[in-house]
């Protein structure tokens, strides 16, 4: 009997009963995820948010394993071991391509992490060697699943939809690590609400409130954690640091720079091997180096990040174009380059999406309906946006009264 | 009213009601602790153990705050605000001097982290500036407390003894992060068990079992978490990497090396400013660089750490001197330099210590007794040692049968 | 220093620091609440729901104590010790008048439990003796608070409103005991969201999402726990048993009956002393006696309750008047008296109420708005009703196909 | 697929996948356990301890189910469905024979609850009808298991030994309900530590510390919860009430008495049907009746219980025979009959037992050893006794100074 058990703060125990999956865990590409935080810069807001994409990947795997135990009892799906392995491997590997401070990094790199996940799966030798022990199509099928080609509909839905093992794990894990209760929901019951018919995943009608709770938990996590103004301000700072370094490089200014970061910032071709050397230790080290750079903007921004002197947000609601110009002028007057010290950011709180990807409820008589048809609560979950401007805190502490009036008080409780 | 509240996974909320303490949190020296893990390499064993010394420092502060709320009601101690501030600041700052992968680093540096804590308190400008706002002796008094000079007996005991806010916080935090239940105890009741008389801290006799539970929790954390063979093996690996780099530098071999690390490895004088630039991102970055070094030992060891191909332990119990020599010979035959690939390590599980530092129980009639006089369970907690040898896993997988017989099976469940 | 500490599964510790409150806990009227479950017949659905009104009363007291600790720091309210005592005593005593299987019992008795709470406060000697130690108006002022006379506005709101210590405690306690996660919310943060100005309670605008989470938790508790069809069916059974006994007594049929229950069922005047002898042990004992009664309806109904052969619900949605008549006929044909075996019940899921009792948000600039103006989610929380018919399970198991089609599948998972 | 799921505060979900087990849950004999608390009078000390033997029986069943899931994977045991059913049914039904306030009741009745469990299994029609659907020996085999006849060694050990599903569930459940953390241990890991070879249950050597933690948790539960002096004092009160009623009946004094209780108190033959009508509602109702009895001792004792004016303990350590006589004299002088108001009670804290029933560790090489050989901590767990005298609190509040000196202060924090 093969059995590896890992202790986990969310699921208590994570069980590996298939040597293939365990071999995947031990590849360098997966181990690298230990050096990338799940929540990017959220640890600047919630000091507990240090958990990694590695822990989350194990948790997504374990959630999938439990989903499959349920579905096998419930409806005999999946019926073959290869499908089971595809589902488990897809859950474990779905985040392979994330870079340091993921979403910020993507915007600099100009490539979605999903693309990198696919490339690593297909091109990384060590990983490929393990995947190919199943068969030579296994890696390609995994990519197909993550691309949602429609060839493995049920697995695709379980790995990436509005009710997938990815979100089930990260919401619970993020809630535990930050210490907030908002992200909690009834995991075991939610898992039991699922059923598969003709390769499609359905939610049982009787579990309506369980799904409502889960989707509302997601809403609360967005407004309280994922889009917390201090976190968004930290993202802005990381992005501005990288933009400044990129700009300096483009201008031919010599700055110290970790080798693995160079092609990213110069816009050269990035190889898979080079990408896999990128992690948050590399980025933080670059910030260390840059904090003593002779370029004052770069050194000031990097030092702000390392010592957590973050940008403060003001709500953009009423700010007119002229006010926006006035803020840039004010920044300049205080010695701050507006391009790097006054940044606008629009954050989107996702809603429940019906078109093409809604959750389908199935009642005892085999009748289907979209979740939003049945639940008034869910219909309120439409996407909304937060417009905010981020500035050095010093600008708010000056005697610019009308400005400080629009500052969230919550922000100051964290800064 | 000044109030800053931080959400915390262990204490739910951490409350700052004194601007001084909040200003201390925001110094670069304290913020640096965000980049140093509380449990060193334990995250290689327990993937949840990513929590930082920063989070723990906040938690030790909050525990002290609650202890003081209790003691003020219980016995009117402390009676003056300066003593309160000393106690809170000492709790918050007690870990300032930790370096990356702390205990391992100390052995290379040859200096205890406590020494660095004292130096940073006295010499770091930004920190000193805040401390001096109280009075010019405040920093010195803090150092005096941490040195246990005996001038502030009660605070000294609350900050560092067998029942202090440091341990109360880290046991709960380590238990939560790793996911084990071993470290849990009744915090609120333990806090209420404390009383201060004539500047000495006592434990109420009626709380005997609460203290027993706490001390046994500590024992279990040592055997299950702190001295887990995979963790000790990871420490050995870090230490051997640093030893190799140091050796190469001493031999005049040119290796890439982060600037902040250079004086440490060459044995030069290390300034406070330079020390404060050291954190785990710097060390991990060095490992990245070294993993492509032309020195094969250095590059192999660094790569092992980054890809988690750790050393495996064998129990040393019966191993005679001749067997020890045989293992070194075997290593050499397999191409492993014995100096870096066969390492002995003795780990000490601390016991309950009576001499000079026992816990004193106080009964309702004012009579004192040492905890160990009253509790049979506590008397079993005497220090013990684990002798282990660490080797590349490959050596165990060869057909050296008598060797693999002595390997803990638990180890393999993690490797 | 006066200090009594009780261990509590919800709040960890409940602290009494005022001998008056402790003396109140030890009155027979409060101790009687140990014999009345908080959730009535919910334990038939959730086997963990055995927690008592006594435990909840202690929890409401502790929640109030924490609210007052916060408000004293926040805004210096309450400023005098008598107001503090009023608030704490009102929280502790607010449920005094509950009878066994409370809401069901009320409908038989024809008197609201609140009326009994007031009478007990004013008329019970042992309780009055303690209350009068404060002053001779203390008991009357407590009644005034519970009646919401408007003389103690802030306390009234904290004891009974849409955001009061009563609900804060019971939602957490009910969630813990049943094992569902739906009722959880951020208690500490919710408490800190409160402020008092000019004797009115406000919620800080920045805590919007905390209040949303709390109100949604309440919604989920209603749909998942409080109005669970199995629980409502158990209530119907208790009510029908009592109705049958009352009917027999009115008809002059001699049945065994506990003395304390006699005036209730005969409609005679009930004294406070007699009311205080009523608890769930008395009712259950009556059911025991009645289960061997010679009246077949009474004995069958009582035996059903004791052996948990409950009524099953069918959703009433589409049922026309003719169908309703058909069901009564069908019951009769199977030997079930329709008056006691076919019962309609309308349950109301409360919504957020604005008129006269909404929650007022207060922003940093002193501007007020009703919660429903700001939150789209809260606006969906309008009252709704569930119409259900309850029948013996045997009726559903017959081959009456169209009937069983309308049965909630969730019901069968519990029955 | 048969599936019934119950929500549980300890195990989250309890799963029934075999209709036989579900049918057993729905027998009157099992449903009766809803009216008997798991911890007897502990709710007088810990107000949360209202959980029932019914909830615990479900929990013991669920723990057994998980143990079997593990053992089936681990070592293919049990190999046949009948053995599985025996194990699950034994776990579910092991507490059937408990009476109200169990251990106290046994001492009055003079019969162990185990005896009643066996009788109910064999003689109760409704239960027997379900059991006989398996085969006609099933009920007898269950009794054989509970009697530990040695015919089903492994099941016997899993149902009743020092490491059985009974204790695993009740320690966690008692800890949760009371709110103490002492009873917690690593359930999932403990379950995985078990293995079966040749019908014997072993504990894997590598799980040594997991078992240590579990056994120490048990020790702490005894000293902090099960033998809490307030609880023991409540037991004494219940016993003295019943003794008084029995005495009065023997003397021919007419007292009101619930019918089901009569044979028990008169020492007549008690039938199974009559026994099954006994539960805590019956006993509490009797106390209600007796609290207005004309016998002053009976009415006072019953009223004390209902209003929680409990007996207070004094430690017996040094009390000589003469002092004991003095206390009886003092009681008499204060109007208390010494036979009912001065009671000595010896409570035994069980230790780890080796003889014939120790836990056997099995290492990777197939070698066995008793747990106590390996663990110093476990060797300290030897049985010990607490001698206490219980008296009306009034006796301690008189000015008998040397007496009150020996009173546990902990007691007063609860009384």
From TrEMBL, chains A, B, C, D:
Name of the protein this chain belongs to: HD domain-containing protein
Pfam families linked to this entry: HD (PF01966), HD_assoc_2 (PF19276)
Domain HD/PDEase: 49-180
Organism expressing this protein natively: Alicyclobacillus fastidiosus
Cross-referenced PANTHER family: DEOXYNUCLEOSIDE TRIPHOSPHATE TRIPHOSPHOHYDROLASE, DEOXYNUCLEOSIDE TRIPHOSPHATE TRIPHOSPHOHYDROLASE SAMHD1
């Amino acid at each position: 009997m093969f059995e590896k058990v890992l202790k986990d703060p969310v699921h208590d125990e994570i069980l590996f009963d298939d040597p293939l999956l365990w071999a995947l865990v031990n590849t360098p590409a997966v181990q690298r995820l230990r050096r990338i935080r799940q929540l990017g810069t959220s640890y600047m807001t919630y000091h507990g948010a240090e958990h990694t994409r590695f822990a989350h990947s194990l948790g997504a795997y374990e959630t999938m394993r439990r989903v499959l135990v349920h579905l096998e009892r419930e409806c005999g799906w999946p019926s073959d071991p290869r499908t089971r392995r595809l589902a488990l491997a897809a859950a474990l590997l779905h985040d392979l391509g994330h870079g340091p401070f993921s979403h910020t990094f993507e915007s600099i790199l100009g490539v979605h992490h999903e693309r990198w996940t696919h490339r690593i799966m297909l091109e990384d030798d060590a990983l490929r060697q393990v995947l190919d022990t199943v068969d030579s199509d296994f890696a390609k099928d995994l990519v197909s699943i993550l691309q949602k080609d429609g060839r493995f509909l049920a697995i695709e839905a379980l790995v990436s939809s509005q009710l997938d093992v990815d979100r089930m794990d990260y919401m619970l894990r993020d809630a535990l690590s930050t210490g907030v209760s908002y992200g909690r929901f009834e995991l075991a019951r939610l898992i039991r609400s699922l059923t598969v018919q003709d390769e499609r995943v359905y939610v049982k009608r009787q579990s309506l409130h369980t799904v409502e709770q889960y989707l509302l938990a997601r809403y609360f996590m967005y407004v309280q954690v994922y889009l917390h103004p201090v976190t968004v301000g930290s993202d802005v700072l990381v992005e501005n640091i990288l933009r400044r370094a990129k700009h300096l490089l483009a201008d031919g200014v010599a700055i110290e720079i970790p080798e693995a970061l160079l092609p990213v910032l110069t816009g050269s071709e990035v190889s898979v091997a080079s990408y896999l050397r990128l992690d948050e230790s590399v980025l933080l080290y670059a910030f260390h180096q840059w904090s003593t750079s002779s370029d004052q903007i770069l050194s000031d921004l990097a030092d702000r990040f390392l010592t957590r002197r973050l940008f403060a947000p003001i709500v953009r609601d009423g700010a007119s174009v002229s006010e926006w110009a006035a803020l840039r002028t004010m920044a300049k007057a205080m010695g701050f380059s507006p391009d790097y010290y006054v940044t606008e950011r629009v954050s989107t709180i996702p809603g429940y999406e019906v078109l093409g990807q809604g959750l389908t409820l199935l009642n005892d008589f085999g009748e289907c309906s979209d979740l939003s048809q049945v639940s008034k609560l869910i219909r309120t979950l439409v996407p909304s946006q937060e417009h905010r401007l981020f500035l050095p805190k010093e600008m708010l502490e000056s005697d610019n009264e009308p400005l400080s009036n629009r500052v969230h008080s919550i922000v100051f409780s964290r800064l």
